[in-house]
Design brief:
By secondary structure, this protein is α+β, with helices and mostly antiparallel strands. The strands form 2 sheets. The chain has a 3-stranded antiparallel β-sheet.
Length: 190
């Protein structure tokens, strides 16, 4: 019995010695593994930090950025875009532009690696300016219909059939009003 107790004590002592050593060895191996994955790469004279093999988030490249460039300079070029997006490669920029051109959001021609005849096709600002005064009057009438039907829907003495018809008419009228105008009209009339 005494020998068994000594063996158990030795085993327990070894466990207390081995566990921290194993943990230390695991941490050293993990550090070496991560040091291979953690690297700094240079791209167009800009550093990008990679963690776990994944690059950190790039600067967002949106059509709003193209609007900004056009407003500031009046022209569009790959150099201007690259100045705004230092962490994007020329290949990635051309790919994004090509995707937008495929979806008919923009139009341009590439001549000798430079952008020519650049045009924003789905320009939200141009869309809002293109709405004529007559269209604005129609939108106001639709909004008044929405308000009138809301009164019928909320009226406690209205019959169920009248409420259902008012809900249907209200949905039709709401569908006709663009979201940004609906918000403005709500602020004006309420």
């Amino acid at each position: 019995m005494g020998l068994k107790m000594v063996n158990e004590l030795n085993l327990t002592a070894m466990q207390y010695l081995i566990a921290p050593l194993a943990l230390l060895l695991l941490m050293v191996n993990l550090f070496h593994f991560k040091s291979y994955q953690l690297g700094i790469r240079t791209q167009d004279q800009h550093e990008t930090l990679q963690l776990g093999g994944y690059p950190m988030a790039k600067t967002p490249f949106t059509q709003e950025l193209l609007h900004q460039i056009l407003e500031e300079t009046g022209t569009m070029s790959l150099d201007l875009i690259q100045d705004k997006l230092p962490d994007w490669s020329e290949k990635d920029i051309k790919s994004r532009l090509s995707g937008w051109r495929y979806r008919n959001a923009i139009d341009y021609k590439m001549v000798d690696g430079e952008i020519e005849d650049f045009e924003l096709l789905h320009n939200k600002k141009n869309t809002t300016e293109a709405i004529t005064a007559g269209k604005l009057l129609k939108l106001e009438e639709y909004f008044k219909q929405v308000q009138a039907t809301a009164e019928i829907i909320n009226k406690p003495t209205a019959s169920d059939s009248n409420r259902l018809k008012a809900i249907q008419l209200q949905q039709v009228a709401i569908e006709e009003i663009p979201d940004f105008f609906y918000k403005e009209l709500t602020e004006i009339y309420n």
